[in-house]
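The instructor's notes for this session suggest beginning with a concrete chain rather than abstract definitions. Hand out the sequence below and ask the class to guess, before any prediction is shown, which regions might be ordered.
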Amino acid sequence: MGVQSLAVACGTLALCLALTTATNPGFVVRITTATNPGFVVRITQAGLDYAHEQGIAILEKKLAQLKLSDISGDSRVLHVGKVHYELSRLRLRDFHLPYTRITPISNVGLQVSISNAFAELDGDWRVKFLFVRDHGSFNLKVENVYIKIFLSLGSDTTGKPTISTSDCSVRISKVRVLFSGRLGWLYNLFHSVIESRLRKILESKVCDNVAKSVQNELQTYIQTLPVTARINAKIGLDYALVAPPRATAQSLDLYLKGEFYSLAHRSTVPFSPPPLALPPDHDRMVYFGASSYFFNTACIAYHKAGALVFEITEATIPKDVGFKLDTSVFSAFIPQLEEMYPDMPMKFRLSAPTAPFLTIGPGGISFQPVVDAQAYAILPNSSLAPLFLLSLTGNVSAVINVRSGRIVGSLDVGRIRLSLKDSAVGTFQVQLLQTVMNNLISSTLIPHLNAHLDEGFPLPLLDRIQLSNTLVKFYQNFLMLGADVHFQPQA
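After discussion, reveal the predicted structure:
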């Protein structure tokens, strides 16, 4: 049993554990686990069907490589006596699987059904009875082969998926052997004995081969599912399994933690994931559900890691903006600056006093972050003189997409609202800085954030899986990403 034949089937991405009771097809699948996931992966029947198409040729080749031992024995033939026979150099030349299907089975796992398969085998024979000896070659045709394999899904202590063969049955309805040689009448007397033995050996060998391949190859492949991902030097992402997947008549759902964390300061998230109910979409091979918890833990992790700090200097402002960041510009709104710090360069240090909290609804992702903007004058000796501290807030929306197996995004900010929190240069009309701060934020901070968001966050994908034909839909408290799957075999 080739790894790809089942790996793409079960693994187009992240399949899993033991399965719970199936719901009625067409209804929303609601998660009833003690711990709600922050992220859900759904493999649809379309994904399993694709796996069948990709894996069947590899499975045929693997079964055609079955190794059969030599066979010998004695058979008592009526009116002839005891005949000793030996079959050697058994070669299984072909194994064809015209009808196969892979389906999720409630409370069991995955079922691989193969029907009407057929194979052809040849080898050498040797016969001895009384003083007669003969040898030659033979051809064996095996027809109407039915194979049924049940795969149990589980997880290990690290949250990675596991898979094993819980049951395998093989039934061969017809075996025909044709001997070549001078004593054809003799061979036909005991060919039924040979056919019976070969049938039993083949039935046993197929299931043995399946179990070994699932353990040695498929298990190794699905272990490539990343349960943690390093986003950068400060942030990690936890994709460990948190609950058994759920089987329906049309899909498998896999429940993941879906939590960002600071590599240096991981701590308990101060809120729980909301229930996540994927709609019954089945047009794509795979769907990913990312809840608001997933994104809000990213905000917390980046805040704890000190990554939500950004400095604006004249060097960070694009040349085409044509803005000079110094006290002479701001003295038009704050006259005191001209007296206290004449013609000195300035710097703004932007930071979030608390982690932003976003919401997801049918209209998309939105949030209202609060940003502290501390203004400094850069003195001739390069030291900083605090000028004033502004609080900035505004409506921010996000655009989400999928590219190269990663969630990517960009932000768009509306009009920013200002308030003065502290001032070392006296009082002034904060509203006079509205246009200036809007320009600074839109020309420097937003492009900086969008550049990081364009790098994206990795989706939980097995090795050699590529996504195409993607879509993005928004629902209350989560967004859903859909995609078709392409499996890239090893060269």
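Then share the key points. Confidence is low (pLDDT under 50) at residues 1-34. The radius of gyration is 34 Å.
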